[in-house]
Amino acid sequence: MAAPRNKKEAKRIATRKRILDTAIYLFARLGYHKTTIQDIAYHIGMTTGAVFHHYSSKTDILEEVLEVLNQSFDPYIAFLEEEGHQEYDLMVKGIHDIFLDRFNHQPSTIIALSSLTAEFSGIRGPIITKCQAIYDRFVDAFEAAMNRYAPAETNRARAICFISGLQGVALQALLRDGEMTIEELLAGF
What we know:
Blueprint: H1 7-30, H2 37-43, H3 48-54, H4 58-71, H5 74-81, H6 88-105, H7 107-120, H8 126-149, H9 155-175, H10 182-188
């Protein structure tokens, strides 16, 4: 993204980011259909009109949220595409480290994708197709990394189950806050 040209542009970009961050948070916890523009506006101290100034509809917000969620997989993909993952345990440790950082700094991006996937799974259409494409970026990269040192027909299934397991860890960490740390859950995983 290019640097803002002036203060007004910088403010516009910052406001859109606040709207998206709030939408991700609410979609993760309430779901897309139960989240209203009024909810988003309320959580960031704006009017619904101000939100509509930046996005013409909740669907437009969802589209951009999906793009943010897609980009949130970039660190995983970059790591998995690196050569030299000769040991499965070291590769998994690297993924755990990325996941832990993401959970500690942006937990809603992990939970929102699983929430949206569950919500739209019964409604076959463009949203579920986009959710699957986002997951498939990770699955494809994990499978390719596995195939470099241990080719097997089951590597795709392993990759799918691995990302599902990580998301389960994130959900359990939120559920068990105070009972177990994310680090303890990851160690168990």
